[in-house]
Structures are given as structure tokens and as C-alpha cells.
């Protein structure tokens, strides 16, 4: 069960990372109308990309320790 929870958190954090990274990139290149969250705040996007990356790292290292 702990392995499944690690994998679920890994997938969730990758989704968060991709979603906010796409929003930030599309907002920066001027495609506001097709951005996932209409590029509401660049600071929020950057914060969630960093947090998502940290979550990916923590989930992956925890999963590797359980083998």
C-alpha cells in the first residue's frame, strides 16, 4: 500500500507541475486565451512549479527507499 500511495502522489505532483508550467509558458508567449488557467498570476505559476518539482523529488525518493 505505501508504494501505491507514493506512485499516486508522484502522478499528482507531475500533473500539477505540467499544468502550471504550461500556464506560465503560454502566458509568457502571449497565448493567454488558451492557457489552462488563463495565466492569472505568474508568481502563482512559478510557486506551484517549484512546489510540484519538490513533490516529484520527495515522492520519487520515498518510492525508491521502499524497494
Number of domains: 1
User: End-to-end span in angstroms?
Assistant: 12 Å
Largest sheet: none
Which percent bin holds the helix content? over 70%
| Percent range for β-strand residues | under 5%
**What does the average pLDDT come to?**
94
Number of separate helices: 2
| SSE string | HH
Radius of gyration: 14 Å
Shape: elongated
Unreliable stretches covering 5 or more consecutive residues: none
Structural class label: mainly alpha
User: Tally of extended strands?
Assistant: 0
Transmembrane segments: 40-60
Keywords: Membrane, Transmembrane, Transmembrane helix
Properties at a glance:
single chain, 67 residues, mainly alpha, 2 helices, elongated
What does this protein look like?
The protein is mainly α and 67 residues long. The protein has one domain. The protein contains two helices and no strands. Helix 1 (2-28) runs antiparallel to helix 2. The protein is elongated. The mean pLDDT is 94.
Secondary structure: elements and pairs:
Elements: H1 2-28, H2 42-65
What's the gist of this structure?
The chain is an all-alpha fold and 67 residues long. It has two helices and no strands.
Amino acid at each position: 500500500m505505501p508504494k501505491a500511495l507514493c506512485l499516486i502522489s508522484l502522478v499528482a505532483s507531475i500533473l500539477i507541475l505540467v499544468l502550471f508550467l504550461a500556464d506560465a509558458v503560454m502566458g509568457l508567449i502571449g497565448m493567454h486565451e488558451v492557457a489552462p488557467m488563463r495565466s492569472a498570476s505568474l508568481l502563482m505559476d512559478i510557486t506551484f512549479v517549484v512546489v510540484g518539482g519538490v513533490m516529484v523529488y520527495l515522492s520519487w525518493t520515498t518510492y525508491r527507499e521502499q524497494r
